Amino acid sequence: MPTEYLQQIAETNSWVAIGPELALGILALLLLALEVLLPKVAHGAIPRIAVIGQLAILASLLWGGMSDVGTGEAFGGMIRFDETGQIFRIFFLITSVFVSYLGMVSLDRKTLPQIEYFHILLVVTAALMLLAQANHFVMLFVALETATVGFYILVSYFRDTVVSLEAGLKYLIMGALSSAILLFGIVLLYGAGSNPALMGSSTDPMNFGNLTRFLSANPADTLGLLGMLFVLSGIAFKIGAFPFQIWVPDVYQGAPIPTTTLLAIGSKAAGFAMLMRLVDVFAPLGDWMYPLLSALAVLTIMFGNLAALTQRNLKRLMGLSGVSHAGFLMLGVIASRTVEWAGTAVMFYLFAYLLASIAVFAVMAHIDGASDSELSLDDLGNLAKRNGFLGLALAVGIGSLAGIPPLAGFIGKLLIFVATFQAEQYGLLGVAVVGVVVSIYYYFGVIKAAFFETWRFSEDEEETAEPVPGSRLGFFGKLAIVAVVAGSIVIGFYQAPLSSMLAGG
Amino acid sequence: MIGLEHYIVVSSLLFSIGFFGVLLRKNTLAIYMCLELMLNAANLALVAFSRYHGGMGGNVFVFFIITVAAAEVAVGLAIIVALFRKRQTVEVEELNTLKD
Questions:
Q1: Alpha-carbon distance A177 to A123, whole Å?
Q2: Are A20 and A129 in contact (CB under 8 A)?
Q3: In Å, how far from its chain's centre is CA A161?
Q4: Theoretical Cys-Cys bridge with A419: which of A212, A267, A342, A360, CB 3.0 to 4.6 Å?
Q5: CATH classification code of B4-94
Q6: Nearest-CA distance from B72 to chain A in Å?
Q7: pLDDT in tens, A166-203
Q8: Cα separations in angstroms, A192 against A108, A142, A204, A226
Q9: Are A480 and A412 in contact (CB under 8 A)?
Q10: A382 against A160, higher pLDDT
Q11: Closest partner residue to B79 among A138, A165, A249, by Cβ?
């Protein structure tokens, strides 16, 4: 019997369908091999090879488009291919390309080994892509841990500075804690779903389909409810939702800028990829889950915005504003219970957030001095005059994050709000609107620091001999920033291509 | 007669000890051991559920968890050692460079 069973499972393996992840893994190994094989003078080319390889994989994914999505479940039910998973794959790859670029900018100033950064980045990206398609708790846990352990290294990568190591330690403790809670939740769900005395139990309740069947047969099972609570807590940590957001400001501040970017975008999106799959799995428990999520969303929006108000440190500000963005995204997830297209709105918001955040972090990577954790609003002084290009990029990025029309962030917020309105969650909508109003205050603090402040102080002593911001902007650096800025503007005006892609058209 | 519930009670106790240990202990290494304790509490519960409910899924998952925990320990101890070399301390209260 066992051999036949194994054969049956082996027949569902479709290696071609996870080609992009395999290609990323091979590329990651290739980088290490090249470091050994190439002479030292040629090492500068290796990060470029990483970027080119990722662009090629991205192109092949986009070329295949939505039609080429593998169908249904594969690998014995471990993975399920669908359009949402496909979009998240594209999302994570785009993130990884830009993070690689920022990594090239930031690592150039350090004497640390460089290649390993790109190696781990690629492995983390492949794990995130698999995570978005997981259909089984074993797959979800292993993919999540592969990404998380990679994150520990990336956060503490600047090991010659205390802040980076300390941020790494804080992320390690909080990350391992949340993983353990998530894992215990999985175990409880397994224990509930495998109980042969209950209706709908199965020998493999960690499979999402089997678990949903079990939960709809026993919606009041105590173990099942506890398990859901624990699993959602673990995910709340990933997306930085209240009350699991305490790590966000410290870790964002201490981590190298490229890693902060990956945390802000990749880790958050991974959390939402999991959350969007799991709200379907836990749908039979909706009467407990949705009030819980609503309460978390309200607290997350309030906390993120209020804590960001007094922040002067740019990275902490981005972290705390990211907490409030997680709250807005949760509104979309909550609305998806009754409004069918709310999932699309969440993904649209994520793409708008991606473009805007990359613009802001790219500007930060170019203006930071020796220590990138101390970057504060004062360092932005006169940025618009010192480098108009970076000033414009910052204004568009911050404007889009704040939701100023006609930028992409505005449309993203609008879609989420309309979905919340259609789901008749008027209380949540009210909190969200207040949150947006508050957020405009601190976002404009950033723009004010970059554009206006120095006009008032222009009679002060001459600029000290600071390095010119953006002096290291090469052609590709400009191209990357132009791409995200143009993306934010174009999507703000004309949403048809992106929304048709997100809707699976 | 020792039944499933005994294992689950022990596992929950281990998990709670680990959880509160992480929150309350001051030494990074002690915190790290508490984290491992939480993972092992999950392992114990998995094996017990697997044994008493039938089905091998839980037993197999335990191997994945052990592997993941080993990777986590390797990275975690490396970070702690690197930090100790810089700061000569592993007490949480003294690791306060990151502040508002």
A1: 22
A2: yes
A3: 25
A4: A342
A5: 1.10.287.3510
A6: 6
A7: 999 999 999 999 999 999 999 999 999 988 888 888 88
A8: 52, 21, 11, 10
A9: no
A10: A160
A11: A165
- Entry field: residues in chain B: 100
pLDDT of B37 reads 95
Question: What tens digit of pLDDT does each residue of A213-267 get?
Answer: 999 998 888 899 999 999 999 999 888 888 888 899 999 999 999 999 999 999 9
Q: What is the pLDDT of residues B47-87, one digit of tens each?
A: 999 999 988 888 999 999 999 999 999 999 999 999 999 88
Contacts of B95 in chain A (CB under 8 A): 166, 169
Q: What is the rounded CA–CA span in Å between residue A126 and residue A121?
A: 9
Q: Please indicate if any CB of chain A lies within 8 Å of the CB of B49.
A: yes
Which amino acid belongs to residue A504?
A: G
A406 upstream amide cis, omega within 30 of 0: yes
Give the pLDDT score at A30.
Answer: 95
CB-based contacts of A431-434 (< 8 A; 24+ apart in sequence): A431/A297, A431/A298, A431/A301, A431/A302, A432/A301, A432/A327, A432/A328, A432/A331
- Provide the pLDDT for residue A49: 92
A382 and A315 Cβ atoms separated by less than 8 Å:
no
Q: How far is A56 from chain B (nearest CA, A)?
A: 30
Average pLDDT estimate for A340-353: 91
In this structure, chain A runs to a length of 505
Peptide bond into A243 cis (omega under 30): yes
Contacts of A158 (CB under 8 A, 6+ apart): A110, A112, A164, A256
Report the SS3 class of residue B27. strand
Specify the 3-state DSSP secondary structure of A136: strand
Q: Is B9 exposed, middle or buried (0-12, 13-18, 19+ CB in 10 A)?
A: exposed
CA-to-CA dists, residue A312 to A298, A341, A359, A374, A378, angstroms: 24, 38, 19, 10, 8
Residues A194 and A137: their CA atoms lie apart, in Å, by 14
- What percent of chain A has a predicted confidence (pLDDT) above 90? 53
CA distance A445 to A420: 29
**What is the enclosing helix (H) or strand (E) of B28?**
helix B28-53
Task: List chain B residues with CB under 8 Å of A6.
Answer: none
Tell me how far apart the alpha carbons of residues A413 and B93 are, in angstroms, rounded to a whole number: 40
What digits encode the pLDDT tens for the residues A349-383?
A: 999 999 999 999 998 888 765 566 777 777 777 77
| H-helix or E-strand spanning residue A437 | helix A426-451
Any chain A CB within 8 A of the CB of B59?
Answer: no
The DSSP secondary-structure symbol of A376 reads: B
